[in-house]
Design brief:
By secondary structure, the protein is an all-alpha fold. It has one domain. Helix content is 79%, strand content 0%. It contains 13 helices and no strands. It has helices spanning 2-33, 36-44, 49-70, 77-82, 84-111, 114-121, 124-134, 141-160, 171-192, 199-220, 232-260, 267-277, 284-310. Helix 5 (84-111) runs antiparallel to helix 6. The protein starts with a helix and ends with a helix. 49% of the residues are buried.
């Protein structure tokens, strides 16, 4: 009994410390992600999406490289470059999660009202909930099913927005891209916690590939390479929401993903509020859809948090 009593108190502080660190990382990611749509909107008003994306991936690659250099993890060439299971799979996950999510999200931002694209792109928690139901890992599948259904009804209301000609105004590409971005982020959130690779090792190669892809995109668009002060905002988008945001989120998911995942659902609330303050407006129909999307995300997040506590 004495040994059990001596050991029990020491475990709680360690668990509490891990949860506190995970919560801090998740909150940092949400704070950075909340500024993504607002800053991206201001840049896309004056610059092509290819240039904005190129600056983002440059900023993200610099952050991931700096974190990698400061990391104490020893690099093993035989493991990182030869073994396909530990080398190629993390790169593939990073490509889908980072490059796929961000490129599709910004195509959506450039193709439709940013406030609507942002709401559709942040339906990835509902997709994670659907995956949990299909994988039979949810504690309350009925609640998740209802919340997900209401959330997707909200997405359709956001898409329709009370404007009948919405689909005929070229927004099909925008909505499809926003939805595709959500699929990529949902996949990344499920996969990242199951990989042994560190976040910087996972994301740095993907960011470098993103730099190459978006540079070729800029060449194809014949972008004028002029240094302007507001382009530093593009580097912020890369270093902040994309770089540190993804790194913080990956660390949080590895430390205690089950309990802190609910924090991510504050992102659409905060980002929509910032966009509204900047002058973006939703129709009444789209606003009802936004309430359904955000409310469903919170319900899904609460279930995941309780599942993490139960585990």
């Amino acid at each position: 009994m004495a040994k059990q009593n001596d050991g029990a108190p020491s475990r709680a502080p360690r668990d509490g410390s891990a949860y506190g660190s995970a919560l801090a990382f998740a909150a940092g990611a949400v704070a950075l992600w909340s500024t993504n749509a607002l800053v991206g909107k201001s840049l896309l008003e004056r610059h092509p999406v290819s240039l904005v994306q190129f600056l983002q991936f440059v900023g993200a690659a610099l952050v991931f490289a700096a974190i990698r250099l400061m990391s104490q993890e020893k690099v093993s060439l035989s493991v990182g470059l030869v073994d396909a299971r530990t080398g190629l799979i993390p790169i593939l996950v990073g490509l889908i999660g980072l490059v796929g999510t961000m490129v599709l999200q910004y195509i959506a931002f450039a193709s439709m009202p940013v406030i609507e694209a942002n709401l559709v792109a942040y339906t990835w928690p509902l997709m994670v909930a659907a995956a949990m139901i299909m994988l039979a890992t949810a504690r309350r599948p009925a609640l998740l099913a209802i919340a997900s259904a209401l959330g997707f009804i909200g997405v359709m209301l956001v898409i329709s927005g009370g404007r009948h000609p919405s689909w005929s105004e070229g927004n099909v590409i925008g909505y499809a891209s926003a939805f595709g971005s959500a699929v990529c982020m949902a996949f990344y959130s499920i996969a990242v916690g199951r990989l042994a690779a560190s976040p910087e090792r996972l994301l740095l190669p993907s960011a470098l590939i993103g730099v190459v892809i978006t540079f070729l995109w800029c060449v194809n668009d014949a972008v004028a390479w002029r240094i302007e002060p507001d382009l530093f905002l593009g580097l912020y988008l890369g270093a902040g929401p994309m770089g540190l945001g993804y790194y913080f989120w990956s660390r949080a998911m590895k430390l205690d993903g089950g309990r802190v995942a609910v924090v991510a659902y504050l992102t659409p609330i905060a980002s929509t509020l910032l966009l509204t303050l900047s002058g973006e407006r939703l129709t009444v129909t789209a606003a009802v859809g936004a309430v359904l999307v955000i409310g469903s995300c919170i319900a899904v997040g609460t279930e995941r948090s309780e599942a993490g506590n139960h585990a």
